[in-house]
C-alpha cells in the first residue's frame, strides 16, 4: 500500500511541501503585504488542506522576542472616512468621538491607527490598496457613510474589517452600531413617565432609511403598546424646512417633538410655542446637538469606536482576514441624558410598567 504524505503540522513542514522559505510561509499566513497575492493564496490553500492552524498569540509573542530591546508588539490599523458634502453637519462631532474611542483602544492594545479620508478630493478609492499595503496595515475600521458605499475594490484578502454602523452590503462586513430601536424605546419611556401623550417624530428621511427605519419602527411600536400615547403622523422628508415643519406642527399639535438637530427647537418657538413650557423636545443624537443643554439620547460614539476596535483586533489575533462568510452585528445601548427641554418626571416608575401588553 502506497504511503500517503503526512499532513504538514508546522510552518517548516508547509515550507518544505511548497518549496518556500519558512519566513515566506509565516508572512503569508500573517498577511504581510510583501508576499505576493498568488503565493499567499497558495500557502493558505495548502495550510487548509493540511489542517494547519496558525496560533496568532504565539506568533505575537515570538515577534516581541525578535524585536530589538523587547519593545512592545504593535500592529498597524487604519480607519477610513468618506467625503460627503451633503452629510448632516452634526455628524462631524459624532465621527470625531468614534475616532477618539478607536484611538484610545488601539493605544491600550498596542496598535497604531492611521486615519484616511477617501474621496475624489483626497485619497481616491483605487489608491487605497497601495497605501494600506505600503504601511503593512492588517485591519480596517470604516466610519459611517451617509450614502451607500462600495468597497469591493479593497483587497480584503489581506485585511480584517469592521463597519461602525448598522449595515454595509458592498461587501458585507462585521458591523458595530447602537441599537436604535431600543434607544427610541428608552426615550419614549422617559416621555411617558413625564406625562407626555401626543409625541411627534421628525426625521430626515435618509437618516432613518440608512438604519432600516428603526427609529420610526420603535416610535410607532411603543405608541401601539402604551395606552396613554396618541402619536402624530411621522414627519419624514429629505429636508426639514420651516414651512414644512410649521404646517405639520400646527396641524397635529404634538406636546413633545423628537428629532436630531437643534434647529427644531427654533422652529418650535417660531410656531409660537415655548420649550419646555408648552412643548418638549428630545434630540435623537446628543453628539449632534453641540454644547446647548438638551434632553437627548447619547448614542455613545466613543464606546462604538472602542467596541469596533475590539472586534477588529480579535479577528487579527485569530488570523481571520477577508470578507466574512457569516457577518455579525454587535449592538450597544444608548444612554438617556436629562435636560431642560422636557418637563420633570411625574411618576415614581417609568412608562414601561404601564404599557398595555399585546395579546
Helices and strands in order, then pairings?
Layout: H1 11-18, H2 22-30, H3 37-50, H4 56-66, E1 75-82, H5 91-109, E2 111-118, H6 128-134, E3 139-142, E4 160-163, E5 174-178, H7 180-193, E6 199-204, H8 205-209, H9 214-225, E7 235-237, H10 242-252, E8 256-259, H11 263-270, E9 280-283, E10 296-298, H12 301-317, E11 329-332, E12 335-337
Parallel strand pairs: 1-2, 1-3, 3-4, 4-5, 5-11, 6-7, 6-8, 8-9
Antiparallel strand pairs: 10-12
What does this structure look like?
This protein is an alpha/beta fold and 359 residues long. It has helices at 11-18, 22-30, 37-50, 56-66, 91-109, 128-134, 180-193, 205-209, 214-225, 242-252, 263-270, 301-317, and strands at residues 75-82, 111-118, 139-142, 160-163, 174-178, 199-204, 235-237, 256-259, 280-283, 296-298, 329-332, 335-337. It has a 6-stranded parallel β-sheet, with helices on one face. Strands 7-6-8-9 form a 4-stranded parallel β-sheet. α11 links the parallel β8 (256-259) and β9 (280-283). It is elongated, with a radius of gyration of 26 Å.
